[in-house]
C-alpha cells in the first residue's frame, strides 16, 4: 500500500548549502528560454494566475478515469499518464489529448474536462496540482501520494512547466533550484532516486521510490539508486509573464460609468423547508458555494465562491443586465432568490439556464444584494435519521452551552452502531461540516438503531477534560449512548469539555454515566471518563452486572467481544459458548477476527481500515488501545498532519501532536 510522503521539511534544511561544481542539468535558469536543460524535456506547460495566500503541491493517483463524468479543475495542474493510454477532453477549449505513459497535459484552474481509457489495458495516471494550503489533503476518490508543505504564493501570472528526465545508472544530475519563485515538486515515476544537497558530499542521501515526491527549495544532486536507471518529473513555477500595460497615448480618457456591485448571501434552510419566514428560519451561512455572474450585453462573466460567512461580492461591474446562477445542484435542493437595492426589492426573472438563478439589471453606481436560500431535499430513506455532534469548550458546567461556551472541533469522534460514523473516509455515512456541528445523514440518512459515541480520537486543547455528553433531541439516550428511531429521528449530542480543575473529585460522582461511581472505577481499574473502558460495546456498569470484566474486550478469551456474545445469544463468561457463525474467521488476515472487527467498527475486508500504513491489529491489538495507542479508523490520530504509519516509521509518537 502506498503511503503519503512529505519530505519538504528535510530538504528545506539541507539545501541551503553551496554548490560543489557540477553544472546545472535543468531548472528555471534566469537566462534560459526553457526550464529543461541537458537531456530533460518539457512535457506539458501552461500559464496561470497565482492566487493570494498559502499554496502547496498535491500529488494523487487515479487507478481508472471517471468515464462520462464532467470534472472541474479546482487549481492549476497536470495529468501525467502512468500506465495505459488516457484520453483527456478539455470541454471549454474544445480540444482532446491522447496521453501515453510518460506524457502529460496542463489543466488550468476552472477547466472543465472529461477522462476516458483507450483500449483494454489498465489505466493509471497522476494528478499534480498546485492548490490552496487548506486543500492539500483533499484527494477526492484518488489515492493521495504526496502532500507538500505550504508556502506563500509568489503572485502574478506564472509559467508552470512539467519537466521529465531520465537518469542512467551511475549518472548524476544537478537541479539548480535556489532562485525559484516557489518550491519545485519532484515526483519519481520509475525506479528509485537519491537526493543530496549540492555542495555537501557527506550528506546522507534521501531515497525516493516510484510514486514518492518531495518539494525542493534549494540546489540538489539527483542520482539513480540500486544500480539501475530511473525517471522523474519536476513541476516548476517560473517567472511572472504578466504583459506590461502600454501607456495611454490619448490626451483625454473617455469617462466611464460609475461601477456597480452585487453582494450575494447564501443561507441553508431546514431540510424540505415549506415555510416562508426565510430570514428567520434559514440562518446557516453556506461556505464554498460557487456563483457565476454573466453580463448580457458586454459578454463578460465572473465567478466567485462564498466565504465562511456565506457571502461573495462582485465589484466594479459595468451597468448591464446580469444572469446570476450557481448554488447547489438542482437535483439535490430547491433555491429561492430575492434581490434588492437601497430603494427596495429589485425585479428579477428566472434564469434561462439549467442551473438555478435569476436575471437582474444593475444601473451605474448601484449597490445591490441577493439573498440566496437553499432548501435541501429530504434524501433520507425510510427508517433513517441524522446525527449531529457539537463540541463545546466551557469555563464550567454550562446552563446553555451555545451561550456560555466556545465552539471546539469534534474531528476524530467515532460513533458505533448499525453503521460506523467517523470524520474521515472510513465513515459509512458522509458527514457535513458546519461552523457549529458535524452532521451525518443529511444525504442518504443514518439507519435507526442504538449507537455509542466514543470521543477518544478527538484532539482537545491541553487542560480540558470531558465533563459530560448531553443526549439527543427530546432526551433520547444519555451519556455516550443514544438512539435514533421514528419518535426521535434526529439525534443532537453536545460534548461538554471543562478545565481539568472543574472536574468533580467526589468518588461518589459517576462522571461518565456508566452506572459506576468514579470511586468504584478506581477500585476495579476502569476509566471514570469513558463509559466503555474496553470498548467492547458494553458499558462498565452493565459489565459488572453480567459478570464480565469491564477492562477486557473479550472476558472469556474465546475471540468474541463481550457485547457480541451478549447480543448474539452466547455466554460472555464461557469460552465454549460463542455466537453463531465462525468467530475465528479473519477475512483480511490482519490478526483480528471478523467478529472483533465488527465490534470495533473496522473493515473486516481490509487489513488497514484507515489507510495510515498500520494494520488494524497493529493499532488495537487483541484489546483496543493496547498496541500503538492509535485509532484504527483515524488516519492521523493526533491531528498533527502526519499519518500514524509515518510517525511510527519516523520514530515519533503518533498520539502526541507536539512530537512530529
What does this structure look like?
Strands 32, 33, 35, 36, 37, 39 and 41 form a seven-stranded mixed β-sheet that branches. Residues 1-24, 26-31 and 473-479 have low confidence and may be disordered. This protein has 660 residues and is mainly beta. The chain contains nine helices and 41 strands. Strand 16 (193-197) and strand 17 (206-208) form a beta hairpin. The protein folds into three domains: 8-240, Jelly Rolls; 260-376, Immunoglobulin-like (Sandwich), CATH 2.60.40; 379-503, Sandwich (Immunoglobulin-like), CATH 2.60.40. It starts with 7 loop residues before the first helix and ends in a 10-residue tail after the last helix.
Helix content: under 10%
Assembly context of the chains: single chain
Total number of strands: 41
Which term fits the overall shape? Answer: globular
CATH level 4 superfamily of the largest domain: Jelly Rolls
From the alpha carbons, calculate the radius of gyration and give it in angstroms: 29 Å
Could you describe the largest sheet, including whether it forms a barrel?
Answer: 7 strands, mixed
Level-1 CATH class name of the largest domain:
Mainly Beta
List keywords for this structure.
660 residues, Immunoglobulin-like, seven-stranded mixed beta sheet, 9 helices, globular, disordered N terminus, Jelly Rolls, mainly beta, six-stranded antiparallel beta sheet, 8% helix, 3 domains
